[in-house]
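In this section we walk through a basic example: taking a raw amino acid sequence and producing a predicted 3D structure, encoded as discrete structure tokens. The instruction is simple. Fold the sequence below.
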Amino acid sequence: MKDFSMQLRYLMDKTLSVAEDKAEEIAKQAVTSLIEKSPHPTGANGRPSPYSTGEFVNNWKVGASVEPSFTNAPIASKEDKISELHSQIDGWFKNNKSLYIWNSGPYVEQVEYLGWKYADDYAPILRTVQELKGKM
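The resulting token sequence is shown next.
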């Protein structure tokens, strides 16, 4: 009976570790997609978007709960923001069961529902959810 209990415990721990790794992978895919689809001076698909300052990209955050905070500081690049958020997600699910991803920028409604008037960057949340659902 003791062997069975130990084997079962091992399998449960292994399964939990695999689930944590998969959750981390999905969270990183989500933030990468959100940022890549968000307005930024580099624009969509590398085409310049002079009407964006990068503020929207810089306001993507991750954490244990939504903490409304806004910064008007632009980020140097989408890649920098992706790296920043990925480093915060690394190992997250070893100690936490959930992760929130949010944007407190003042342009969320405009970008998500009304479109970004001068660029191809629009509906990053909807398009990211659709993309992730297609992978599941």
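Looking at the output, two observations stand out. The radius of gyration is 18 Å. The longest helix spans residues 2-36. In the next section we compare this with other chains.
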